[in-house]
Design goal:
The protein has one domain: Rossmann fold (3-Layer(aba) Sandwich). Helix content is 42%, strand content 17%. The protein has helices at 17-27, 58-66, 78-86, 104-119, 132-151; strands at 6-10, 30-36, 47-52, 72-74, 90-92, 98-99. The chain has a six-stranded mixed β-sheet, with helices on both faces. Helix 1 (17-27) packs parallel to helix 5 and helix 3 packs antiparallel against helix 4 (104-119).
Length: 155
Amino acid sequence: MTAEPTIVVDADACPVKREIVEAARARGVAVLMVASHDHRLQQEAGVEIMQVDRSDQSVDLYIANRVRRGDIVVTQDFGLATIALARGAIALSPRGERYDDRNIDYLMERRHALAKRRRGGARTKGPKAMTDEDRYRFQQKLTKVLESRQENGEP
């Protein structure tokens, strides 16, 4: 028996939690929000909340150990996205970018290069501020993924 897929969210800094819940609720898909104890999340119907300790990689480790084939993982973390892809999950960024085998190596290399520059004293820019257009693009991409799964007879 195949378990129903879940939208698994790296919720510590996820700016599209509301959009995820709305899309999931409209299609009857379960949501698991994982966050450290530093981030308080509101309990609501159809959303399971898992609070983990504050250590640096606790959320990522919990998700990596929990994610299954067919789940949808929403994360800004390229390393976690890589693990999700290896486990057979779909991985999306909060801006609606779908991580896949064609782009994840480049993203990981870019992350490494920027970290190396920062360790050398260089300053790098953080991500752009989230816009309404970004939120809309994410919700459209998530909806498309969910609809595609249903059209293909996937749970």
